Each structure stands twice: as structure tokens, then as C-alpha cells.
Amino acid sequence: MSSLLEGIEPRPKDVVAALGSLESVVERLRARRDARAVFPDVYAVITRNVAREVLGRTGFFQEPEWISRLAGRFAERYLETLAWSLQGTAQDCRAWELAYVYADLGLTLPFQDAALGISAHINFDLALGLWRTIEEFGDTSERRLARYKHDHDAVNGLLAASLPEAVERLVERYACPVTPRMFSGAARPVMRGVALFVLERWRAHVWEDVLSLVHASGAAGREAVVARMHRRSGGLGQVFALGCEVRRMGRDARGLFEVPRAAWK
Asked: Which of 13, 60, 81, 91 is the most exposed, fewest CB within 10 Å of its CB?
């Protein structure tokens, strides 16, 4: 394990442990002005809001123990990819490979760091986390799956509630040069609507993948679903990484376009 992750719980079992691990990772990555801090910082905002609903027993979730376990498993997966990145080990999916390679080269804007991480975590990791947590709890009846889907869909509301703080972190903590132009003035409601629509569509696809995994006929069927997730998440990663190769060519040729990290606060 990388020394940066020493003492951090790599396999959180619930949402509280997940939040603790994420916050520790953010603190350590920010201390070294590492672009990899951006995604877990935004991710922690959402995780904290999930924890509030779970711990408060507000009735927001129909299966709070299940959603808490899912949050732990979901964070475990992210921590696994981060450990591979810190160790220089190959990622197991193209989406995470793009996110880490470009961040490590200093070719991303903070908005891209967030978008690349969010896309990889939702479009590749989430369906696997959901499926494995459903399998762990052992009930795949239609009634139980409907309750799980309710909670999965309910997170969309927490994503909407988390968006303002996530945007603020990109601006205030990471001095992102493009986020203020995208999420201020007349553009703000439009961009907010677009961002939430995209997230909801992604998560709808995720649930379709979950059902395919639950009902797959053996390992070959599951492998076909995962291959589809690989292709979709990798393609989206390439979209969010647009501009990184241009910056690399410009930097290599003239020493220009490297994204400054000195402006972090």
C-alpha cells in the first residue's frame, strides 16, 4: 500500500467509514497539491449527505442498512483505483486510466478531474457495487429489488442538493478557471439542469446494468455486461479528457498550457 494511504481504512463497511476514508484522502492529497484530490473532495460532499439521511433515520431511504453498505463498498472501489494510481499499477478500466494519467501529468482542469472521476465511478463502478451489495444481502425478489431501486433513484435528489457545494469547492479550493463561467449568471440554471439530467441518465443506465447482472445466466453473461460498461465508461472518459492531449502537445513544444496548481487555496 502507498504510504499516502497508510492508516486509512481501505475497505470501509458503511457510509460513516466511507466518509472518514474519503476525507482523510482529500486532506493528504491536497497537502501535496495533487490533482487527484479534486474527485474525492466532490465525492465526499455527496457521501456526507447520504450519511446524514442514513444516520438520521429520516425515512428518505427504504433500505438504509443496504445503502450504507453500498456506500462503503463504493468507496472501497474508489480507494482501490487510487492505490493503483499511487503505486503506478495499471487500472482495470479505461475510464479510470484516463482520469489518473492526465491528472498525474498535470494536464487537467479541476472541472475535468471531477468529471472524469464522477463518470468513471458511476458508469463503471456503480453497477458492480450495487450488484455485489444486492448479492451480499441475498434477496433478489422483485419486491426487494424495487426497494433498492427506490433508494438508488433517491440518491439523485442528494446529487442535486450536493451540486452547489461541489461547484463551490471547484471554485474556492481549486481555483478552477472554467467552473465560474459555467455555473454563474444566466448560465447557472441551464448548466445545473444539464448536469443533473446527465447524472440521472447515467444512473438509469446503471440500474439497467444491475438488473442484467442480477439476471445474467452465468459468468459469460456477466462478462458481457461488464464489457458493455467498459466501452461506455471509456468513451465518456475520452469525451471529458478532450483538450488534455492538446495541452500536452503544447507543453511539450513550448512549455505552455500546464495547468497551475499554485492557485489552490
From this structure: 13
Confidence (pTM):
0.93
> What's the per-residue H, E or C state across 174-229?
CCCCCHHHHCCCCHHHHHHHHHHHHHHHHHHHHHHHHHHHHHCCCHHHHHHHHHHH
Q: How far is CA 38 from CA 22, 97, 252, in A?
A: 11, 16, 25
- On whether the CB atoms of residues 244 and 259 are closer than 8 A, the answer is no
**What whole-number percentage of the chain has pLDDT above 70?**
94
pLDDT tens string 15-30: 999 999 999 999 999 9
Counting every residue written for the chain, the total comes to 265
Q: Is 61 helix (H, G, I), strand (E, B) or coil?
A: coil
CA distances from 209 to 73, 175, 190, 212 (A): 17, 36, 29, 5
Residue 173 is placed in which grid cell?
A: 479550493
Amino acid identity for residue 14 in this structure: D
The pLDDT, as a whole number, for residue 190 is 95
How far, in Å, CA of 233 to CA of 43, rounded?
A: 18
Rounded to 5 degrees, φ, ψ at 109 are -90, 155
Supply the pLDDT for residue 59. Answer: 95
Mean pLDDT of the chain: 94
Cell of 80: 482501490
